[in-house]
Amino acid sequence: MRTPPQLPDSNSINSFRLHLIILIAGVAFVFVGGFAVYRYIYGPLVVALIDTLIVLAGAAIAFYAWRTGNVEHAGAAMAVVFAIAAIAVTAWIGVSGAVWIYTVILFVFYLAPPALGLGVILFSIAAIVVLHLGSARSVFDSSEQMASFMASATAMTAFSYYFAARNRMQNEQLLQLATRDPLTGLENRRRLEPELNVAVEAAKRHNRPYGLIIMDADNFKKINDAHGHAAGDAVLKALADTIASTTRLEDRAFRYGGDEFIIILPDVGPEGLETVSHKLVHAIESRGQSDAHGITVSIGAALLRSEDNKDSWNRRADQHMYRAKERGGNRCEID
């Protein structure tokens, strides 16, 4: 089986988000850390402690994201921490702290989902206004200055939210286009390799059994040649539908290319893998007999072994698929 090209997918997007979290933590270390040092020397000490906590929290969240890969939770946590810190600093030093909300707006919409970011920022702006109106120490020098802050911060929030939401939607659409086969709706070969890696790691860490099925249509070229590509496309859609109706919800099916399909089956043993393979062969044969094309498939299947990597696992299933073809097709061969 050929290795699919390394093209952008959800892993590359997560990698970008991780680098962004680390970059923002680094920016906080340099600039907020610099202010912390200054305030330890000249005061106020409470704000120096808040700045220190911001730096430490940013570093801890970045480390968590790097170790776990959970960039969604890490980004949301960092956004909330920075927003709360901006409110706290404003409570102590007034308008000099409030101006940091503009930087926080940029960070929050890069770090958190747009809806969460919008809520966090609007809460922060409202909290700063409440501090001004309800505290003995006013945040702003005048009502005009407060109104200017509210208008400018709200406008920046609105535009940042719009662009963040639009960017997120476009990224999701691009990811869908990059990882879904438009004809069958199944995931494509770009998604296959990372999912094979996930299965191998899950098996090693959690002793979770996995099976792999490689399925290839028999004599598919003859259908295309005799009936045209529209008929061939209809057959491929029918194969995908049969896979979906025959396998479980937790099984992952991929169109690898042409008339070849691959299925990853978690939590399956030898009997289960053999049962599913036979069911697929018989279901597709039955469906093929009901139309004019009579499509059948050859299947090779293999359980993941402790010594396997994704390539050796895939190779064994692929070899058994070719063995099924050599024996006449319309059958399955189990490793």
Task: Tag the structure with descriptive keywords.
Alpha-Beta Plaits, 12 helices, 6-stranded mixed beta sheet, single chain, 6 strands, 70% helix, 2 domains, alpha/beta, disordered N terminus
Overview of this protein structure:
With 335 residues, the protein is of the alpha/beta class. The chain folds into 2 domains: 10-179, no CATH class; 187-334, Alpha-Beta Plaits (2-Layer Sandwich). The protein contains 12 helices and 6 strands. It has helices at residues 10-42, 45-68, 71-93, 95-98, 100-111, 114-134, 143-179, 189-206, 220-227, 229-246, 270-289, 310-326, and strands spanning 187-188, 210-217, 252-257, 260-266, 297-303, 331-334. A 6-stranded mixed β-sheet has the order 1-3-4-2-5-6, with helices on both faces. Helix 1 runs parallel beside helix 3 (71-93). The longest helix has 37 residues, at 143-179. Residues 1-8 have low confidence and may be disordered.
